[in-house]
Amino acid sequence: EVQKLNQQLEEKNAEIEQMINQPPYEKEREILRLQKSLAEREKAQATSNVLCRSLTDETHQLQRKLASTAEMCQHLAKCLEEKQRKEKGNSDDQIATERSNQVFFSCYVLDNETPLQALICKLQDENRMLKQKVAHV
């Protein structure tokens, strides 16, 4: 009977050894879950990197467009001032500057708006929209 019990004990010890050497189901499941989570995070990171690069490129493009639009507006404002100075003469220089500022900063000009003034207003609106887009980005 003692021999029989010793043999059963050895069988149970062998079974326990086998179970210890074999990875548990829960550990395997956790490893798979972590691997899946890692893959999802890597995919999300890659997507995020692509979006960041895209937004950076768009930001640079909008900044260049904004700079060129602002330069164009300044040039047009100078041209308008020169034109008004020629028309009015040096005595009306202050009035011309005020009108230039009104045209430059307000697009709500009366019905007798010149094509140059309309162009300036259009560029100002575009400039304002670009500034909003840059601020948003």
Automatic annotation (TrEMBL):
Biological process (GO), any one: positive regulation of canonical NF-kappaB signal transduction
Keyword Coiled coil: yes
Alphabetized UniProt keyword annotations: Coiled coil
Location of region: Disordered: 1-24
Biased composition (Basic and acidic residues): 1-15
GO-annotated cellular components: cytoplasm
UniProt name for this protein: TNIP2 protein
